[in-house]
Write a structure and sequence with these properties.
19 helices, binds adenosine-5'-monophosphate-propyl ester, alpha/beta, 29 strands
Length: 635
């Protein structure tokens, strides 16, 4: 069941200019792809050799216990070594690492030297509070420079971080704290969004009540409103950073290549979010290589990944890979339309952004306001544009290319996942493009589109997207749940040993790949990933709801919107008031992104004889389409 159904315009080509190809870090995709295919291990060794290691590996890939692959076995490193320590001994200490702009107009810049010092200070603070190598630290913050400092400080002391997106509500936060068993939580008093304060600390207070494992809360002051500070548990970041213990030098923990760097929770097919585990070694090698080649990062670039650090896009391509490459990264705190719909274009012009990377939903959102807003600003610094998170519809692609890229900038459509750590299917700047296609796999990656038995499907036919070989930044496991790791990703094609992505895709007559959408119970709403089961269990946690089913239906702006069907408990009747109450309940329990566009009250739900809800039938009904094969329907 693919979510989106546009017809790919497979014959529409956009070719990069000769100058673009000539100047690119990788001018010949085919040659490099072939090289990597001939000897993948030698290929990755070359990439790993570009980074610093305390000690090199004994073995490149250990595949003796599939699917628990290990990379650079025996190698000793630390993300902080490559992202910070190695730069401050060179001229790069003076280069800007981060340029930050608050939604209220406040501006902060951090050189590599300053970022290194702040990270060291905070690493010392965390150590002084008893955080040790291996302890999990939860981070629940807005888009402020301190989120990068917090992540880097955790990496430096070897404490895996679990960043929870600031748009999640208390139940979502509490369950993630609980799963990771974090004793320390780092947050902000609030975050600015559309001129209003998102009260992060209030949410933390409730989450910590629900998940009492947290002993210490560190609070960055951003919005300045009155908040509750519980003595003995809550500490201001700025107070701690002013203590003598917060020295600007700190030892970097020597980590095994396979030691965990972070856990990042993402939605799966059950209500319980999965903690995707990434490690220090392979993840560095893969993210740095992909960013350098795909977005052609040069010393003088100003790179702006406009995602949130709380998602994998932000982990890999706001914080870690740009810093490993010694690049200058832009972070903007707020909404693209605040105070006016040209805020982003203003930022591009103000900072001379050369590469912009965002999501189709944001492009569609800005497209609505017309061309006059971008036309007011000088966008001539841009040389590459990127997109991620969901399929980009060709109309949005063309607008992005013509209006923002002024027909000069290739559109780099990157397909990947929290689990993959980095870009998997993507053009390089030297590759010919087709609007809506992520083109071809990154060198070192082999993908295919197959049917349920593993046989390749024909040209332009839909099938399951699989990855056929291991890669350095692949998910290592689901935190604390190896069985789920196997059943989710490896069981379906166990005999072949392929990774199941969970997406439907097709390949056209030119070998170009088109990702159509998820084919499991995962939804993409405005590029955010949500499990139908998460929304359903949120609804059922309301006392009026006995049972519920949730589906995604296509939406022009958001990609998909959520429709919910609820069976109410005996004696309760559906009403507009109850619908509004349930929406508020979901906002509170899961977060604003999970609020259904529509809730329908029903007497029963279509189920198979084994009791599984047939979402396909609900979806067909919602879209006014034929209901299809109903032979397995119970009633
Ligand atoms: O369905 C695919 C979609 O996003 C899913 C992964 O979501 P998440 O783990 O949140 O990571 C998003 C950012 C890397 C995929 O299974 N997806 C991501 N990028 C694309 C995409 N679908 C189509 N085209 C893309 N470029």
């Amino acid at each position: 069941m693919a979510e989106q159904g546009f017809t790919p315009p497979t014959s529409e080509w956009y070719r990069p200019s000769a100058d673009m190809i000539k100047g690119a870090n990788v001018p010949d995709y085919d040659a490099v792809y072939d090289l990597a295919r001939q000897d993948p291990e030698a290929f990755w060794v070359k990439r790993a050799d570009e980074l610093d290691w305390y000690q090199k590996w004994d073995q490149v890939l250990d595949d003796s216990n599939k699917p628990f692959y290990k990379w650079f076995v025996g190698g000793k490193t630390n993300m902080a070594l490559n992202a910070l320590d190695r730069h401050v001994t060179t001229w790069r200490r003076n280069k800007l690492a981060i340029i930050w702009e608050g939604e209220d107009g406040e501006k902060i810049t951090l050189s590599y030297w300053r970022l290194w010092q702040e990270t060291n200070k905070f690493a010392n603070v965390l150590r002084s509070m008893g955080v040790k190598k291996g302890d999990r630290v939860t981070i629940y913050m807005g888009r402020v420079p301190e989120i990068a400092i917090a992540m880097l400080a955790c990496a430096k002391i070897g404490a895996p971080h679990s960043v929870v997106y600031g748009g999640f509500s208390e139940q979502a936060l509490a369950s993630r704290i609980d799963d990771a068993q974090s004793k320390v939580l780092i947050t902000c008093d609030g975050a600015w969004l559309r001129g209003k304060i998102v009260p992060l600390k209030d949410t933390v207070d409730e989450a910590v009540t629900r998940s009492p494992v947290v002993e210490t809360v560190i609070v960055v002051k951003r919005t300045g409103q009155e908040i509750n500070m519980q003595a003995g548990r809550d500490y201001w970041y700025h107070d701690l950073m002013a203590l003598p213990i917060a020295k600007p030098q700190a030892d970097t923990e020597v980590m095994d290549a396979e030691d965990p760097l972070f856990i990042l929770y993402t939605s799966g097919t059950t209500g319980k979010p999965k903690g995707v585990l990434h490690t220090h070694g392979g993840y560095q090698v893969y993210t740095a290589t992909t960013l350098k080649w795909v977005f052609d990062i040069k010393e003088e670039d100003r790179w702006w990944c406009a995602a949130d650090p709380g998602w994998i896009t932000g982990h890999s391509y706001i914080v870690y890979a740009p810093l490993i490459l010694g690049a200058t990264s832009i972070i903007y705190e707020g909404a693209p339309t605040y105070p006016y719909p040209d805020r982003w274009w203003q930022i591009v012009a103000d900072y001379g952004v050369t590469i912009l990377y965002t999501a189709p939903t944001a492009i569609r959102g800005l497209m609505r306001f017309g061309e006059a807003w971008p036309a007011r600003h000088d966008l001539s610094s841009l040389r590459l544009l990127g997109t991620v998170g969901e399929p980009i519809n060709p109309e949005a692609w063309r607008w992005y290319h013509r209006v923002i890229g002024e027909e000069r900038c290739p559109i780099i459509d990157t397909w990947w996942q929290t689990e993959t750590g980095g870009f998997m299917i993507t053009p390089l700047p030297s590759v010919d493009l087709k609007p809506g296609s992520a083109t071809r796999p990154f060198p070192g990656i082999e993908v295919d589109i197959v049917d349920d038995d593993g046989a390749p499907v024909g040209t332009n036919e839909d099938g399951n997207l699989v990855i056929k070989n291991p890669w350095p930044s692949m998910i290592r496991t689901v935190y604390g749940d190896d069985d789920r790791f196997i059943s989710q990703y490896w069981e379906k094609y166990r005999d072949q040993g392929w990774y199941l992505a969970g997406d439907t895709a097709r390949r056209d007559e030119d070998g170009y790949l088109w990702v159509i959408g998820r084919n499991d119970d995962v939804l993409k709403v405005s590029g955010y990933r949500l499990g139908t089961a998460e929304v359903e269990s949120g609804l059922v946690s309301h006392s009026a709801v006995a049972e519920s089913a949730v589906i995604g239906v296509p939406d022009e702006l958001r990609g998909n919107k959520i429709f919910a069907y609820c069976i109410l408990v005996e004696g309760v009747d559906g009403s507009d008031v109850l619908e509004a109450e349930l929406k508020a309940h979901i906002r509170h329990e899961v977060g604003p992104i999970a609020v259904p566009a529509q809730i329908e009250f029903v007497d029963n739900l279509p189920k198979t004889r084994s009791g599984k809800i047939m979402r396909r039938v609900l979806k067909a009904k919602a879209l006014g389409q034929p209901l299809g094969d109903l032979s397995t329907l119970e009633d």
